[in-house]
Design a protein that fits this description.
The protein is an alpha+beta fold and about 130 residues long. It has one domain: Thiol Ester Dehydrase, Chain A. It has 3 helices and 6 strands. The protein has a 6-stranded antiparallel beta sheet with strand order 1-2-4-5-6-3. A hairpin with a 2-residue loop joins β5 and β6. The radius of gyration is 14 Å and the shape is globular.
């Protein structure tokens, strides 16, 4: 199974939210709709976090590696509203035998609206 197929078939929750991918998983997208909003009319932080987590999962589960999140820290930098299109991408900045550290950016166009520092634990090779 190709890496992008793994993520397209393994995350029913991301699909439920409407998260999609293109470029074989280099970016993940979420068009903000009414059901993504919190009681103040802005995008719920959990929807933004889930988008970031999806990009993170793709970057650490490649080449047959099975990895899970150990720690994720998100900073919400700008409010996001209904109709906005968000794109998330993840970059591994440090890779060890048992862990990987990534930076994930969630953008609305050129603006970064959320930034995540995340650590994954490598469970095993498939």
């Amino acid at each position: 199974m190709k890496d992008h197929e793994f993520l397209n078939t393994k995350s029913a929750f991301a699909g439920l939210l409407g998260i999609t991918t293109d470029n074989e998983g280099k970016t993940f997208k979420l068009k903000i709709e009414k059901h993504h909003l919190n009681s103040h009319g802005y995008t719920h932080g959990g929807a933004i976090f889930t988008l970031a987590d999806r990009a993170f999962a793709h970057s650490v589960n490649k080449n047959g590696q099975v990895a899970v999140a150990m720690e994720m820290n998100i900073n919400y930098l700008s409010p996001v509203k209904e109709g906005d299109l968000l794109e998330a991408s993840s970059e591994i900045i440090k890779e060890g035998r048992q862990t990987k550290v990534c930076i994930v950016k969630v953008k609305r166009g050129l603006e970064t609206v959320a930034a995540v520092m995340a650590t994954a634990f490598n469970i095993k090779k498939k």
